[in-house]
Design a protein that fits this description.
alpha/beta; Rossmann fold; 14 helices; globular
Length: 292
Amino acid sequence: MRIMTDQAQNLRTLMQLNNSSTRVITVASGKGGVGKSSLALNLGIALSRQGKRPLIIDTDFGFSNIDVMLGVHPQHDLLDVIEGRCTVREAIETGLAGVQFISGGSGVYELLRMPSSQLIEVIDHLAKLEDVADTIIFDTGAGLSEHAVWLNRAAHETILVITPEPTSMVDAYALLKMLRDQGEKPHVSLVVNKVSGVREAQAVAQGFTRIAEKNLCVRIHSLGHITRDMNMSNAIRMQVPILISYPRCTAAVDICTLAQRYLGQPPRIVKRPGVTGFLEYFLARKKAVRES
């Protein structure tokens, strides 16, 4: 008990001293197949080219795609870090264009079920990510799975990916509603993928944001769109990101534009800065759930 008390005090001290500028982003969707993982990967590359130090963490439990898209076979994953088989630095893999990522495996799933005393130790290890990255991109699982919802609740901001398909928009709306109903007011940027052009993208974005703001009182910033492009499918088959394999194609240019718009946004003041603040959320929520 004494050890756990000391660990908790150390975490509180760390939070008080935490002035990290590391941003934690989730790339989310209401359903699979909308291009969420492709955006997470290529956004990481685009941010890197703009001088940022991104790290992608693939937490799509059971359907991890980042390593496959890069043609990399990870030696370790987030679960190895959690269970003490490697350090967080040892779990980081480097793919094409120098993009860094960690395969999540079932790591986030285990975090949700971990006793608080052990979770404090894990947070201490994962806080070291702030030394290697200024932007952490979580590729979350699609839909309303427990770990995906918790990640989106804890993140500093969420990039929500939809397509013009009605099912995509309905499921994305359901995700926003769940976050709102659980007491969160998420900071959401919208990306409309697989559109025929600017006109369709604007119509879809305006319709979705209008309904979300009217019915959920959730304000959504439209980050932009990605044009439907066969080169995206070709890049996935080649296991070479589209920003590398087809850098001048329409979709690649759209993604670079998204990255520039993201970086051009004014910095947000967040209550839980840095990786430590993001992970500390899990402790707070676990305690709240236990006491409710």
